[in-house]
Design goal:
alpha/beta, single chain, 7-stranded mixed β-sheet, Rossmann fold, elongated, 2 domains, Helicase, Ruva Protein, domain 3, 265 residues
Length: 265
């Protein structure tokens, strides 16, 4: 079968450098005994290395032309191609609640959505790695105190160790994207309970980064009842969201929770 034509609407940029594909596949070398879900395999440049390493691979592909190519060229994937949108795939149901890994050369246009989706299954996704737009990859791994830090940085780092591994040039893709790419690896940490209301934690992170130029004293006002008196001696409230560590966001969440309870009493 002929090569698959990259489709702009699907954000497809096919990796042509096999050495880079091999490096990405090696991020899961410590997880050979755990099933792997590859997102958007395209023509299988990454898939072949995962299979060669002995991984139990299933692929999720929305492009029908790519699905046909994979069926014709990768007999090992028989019965292991999920033809559809990864963002609609219930990993917990698919793997029966067993742990899994996620990997891919992720489409730039939905990469953030992919990681939000992975986060929904943090109880079973042990490791998640792959390639995405460098700017987004750097954001996911951004430590506290850096301008790149954002909502996903904090939400992911609460549950995963996030590492930026290496940068990939535009020249090794067909067609070449207009930006460089970055490869990351997320390894599940040992946290099972944040020590705060998890739903409120997400709300606090999203709300404060929604007004990231303001200090927390100003943004927190929108999270507590009108007229609530905020602590005057809190150093935390003098900071901006990108300055906070995960632990400080947990502290802030508990503060907001306490202030809400005070109002109810």
């Amino acid at each position: 079968m002929a090569q698959v034509k990259p489709k702009k609407a699907l954000g497809q940029h096919f990796l042509t450098d096999l050495s880079i594909a091999a490096r990405i596949a090696s991020t899961l070398d410590d997880y050979v005994d755990i099933p792997v879900m590859e997102v958007g395999p395209g023509m299988g440049v990454l898939t072949r290395f995962l299979l060669d390493k002995g991984h139990d691979v299933t692929v999720a592909e929305i492009d029908t032309e790519s699905v046909e190519y994979l069926r014709d060229n990768f007999p090992a994937l028989e019965g292991r191609i999920v033809e559809g949108d990864f963002l609609k795939l219930d990993l917990r149901e698919f793997y029966g609640g067993r742990e899994c890994c996620v990997i891919g050369n992720y489409p730039y246009n939905i990469s953030s959505q992919i990681f939000f989706h992975v986060l929904d299954f943090k109880d079973i996704v042990t490791c998640c790695s792959g390639m995405l737009q460098r700017e987004v990859a750097e954001r996911l791994a951004a430590p506290a105190g850096t301008k790149a830090r954002g909502i996903l940085s904090v939400l992911l780092q609460a549950w995963y160790k996030v590492e930026y591994l290496f940068t990939v040039s535009e020249s090794v893709f067909n067609p070449p994207p207009k930006v460089k790419s970055g490869v990351i690896k997320m390894t599940r940490n040992e946290v099972t309970d944040l020590g705060c209301d998890e739903k409120l934690f997400k709300t606090v992170v999203k709300t404060t980064f929604g007004q990231r130029r303001k200090t927390l004293r100003n943004t927190v006002k929108g999270l507590v009842p009108a007229g609530t008196v905020l602590p005057t001696d809190s150093e935390l409230l003098a900071l901006r969201p990108e300055q906070l560590s995960v632990e400080q966001f947990i502290e802030l969440t508990n503060l907001v929770s306490t202030l809400r309870q005070v109002d109810k009493s």
